[in-house]
Amino acid sequence: MNSRFIIVFGTGRCGTALLAQYFGGVTNSKSEWRCRDNTAIAHEPFDNKKGYWKVIDDVKKGRQSQFVKDILMVELEKFQNCNQFFITDSKLGRWFLDDFLDSRLETRVVYLHRDERAVVRSMRKFCRKWGLRWCYQTTDAQSSVNRTLDPYWYHVKETSSRWQKARDKLRPEQYVEVSFERFLIDRKHRTELEAFVGLSGYEDLLKIKVNPSQNRIEEFIYKLIGLLKRLFGAVTFPS
């Protein structure tokens, strides 16, 4: 298979749905494939596929991933006119990056980083909404990250730690690091990602989905908290 793949590496709630909407031009992109300019774009298209979560559980237990062979290639058989696939599912980077590389697929990675406090707050809100005590799995039982952290913060810190290791396996041209906050308010940052993906984004859709003034306020608050933490030590994280 000569197709090219772009996958996302990040935490849960890091903004992957917005990426699919920005490049795919749809406002509700969950599990849906959209093809444009020979690129198929989808957000978390495998969540309902048989065997997907079992493969994740196998990887978590240290077994070799069968995702590419048993799930990815089966799903992509229906695409005849696309030679690039942009899949905005942060689990693919966390769980299956080695599988993509070992399968010798032409793979590039978007590392999508969102402010840690915003991620934790969003995860807590999401879990409360669905009545779940905890819904974001960690990746590596042998991680060096402090396991006394609550599970939300452990998930965030561990994902960052794993990215530092994963980045060493990639050539500079194989990855791009994207700040979710900058993506929302900085056109130049979005242009750099567009060049990496090879597609233009739908700016009008982005204007509908976000409130730039709200994001600037939130970004300022997080920078202020970071400054206070450096100056005075521990600062309580907003929940």
Summarize the structure in words.
There is one protein chain. This protein has helices at residues 16-24, 52-60, 67-75, 90-102, 116-129, 151-167, 180-185, 187-197, 203-209, 212-232; strands at residues 4-9, 33-36, 39-42, 84-87, 106-113, 175-179. The protein is an alpha/beta fold and 239 residues long. It has a domain at 4-115 and 159-209: Rossmann fold, CATH 3.40.50. The protein has a six-stranded mixed beta sheet with strand order 2-3-4-1-5-6, sandwiched between helices. Helix 5 (116-129) packs across helix 6.
Shape: globular
Secondary structure category: alpha/beta
Average pLDDT value? 82
**For the largest beta sheet, what order do the strands appear in spatially?**
2-3-4-1-5-6
CATH topology of the domain at 4-115 and 159-209: Rossmann fold
Major β-sheet annotation:
6 strands, mixed
The rounded distance between the terminal residues' Cα atoms is 46 Å
Number of strands: 6
- Helix count, DSSP H or I runs of 4 or more residues: 10
CATH uppermost class of the domain at 4-115 and 159-209: Alpha Beta
H/E series: EHEEHHEHEHHEHHHH
Helix content: 40-55%
User: How much is the radius of gyration in Å?
Assistant: 18 Å
Bin the strand percentage. 5-15%
Architecture per CATH nomenclature, i.e. the level-2 architecture of the domain at 4-115 and 159-209: 3-Layer(aba) Sandwich
Uncertain runs: 234-239
List the helices and strands and how they pair.
Layout: E1 4-9, H1 16-24, E2 33-36, E3 39-42, H2 52-60, H3 67-75, E4 84-87, H4 90-102, E5 106-113, H5 116-129, H6 151-167, E6 175-179, H7 180-185, H8 187-197, H9 203-209, H10 212-232
Parallel strand pairs: 1-4, 1-5, 3-4, 5-6
Antiparallel strand pairs: 2-3
Helix pairs in contact: 5-6
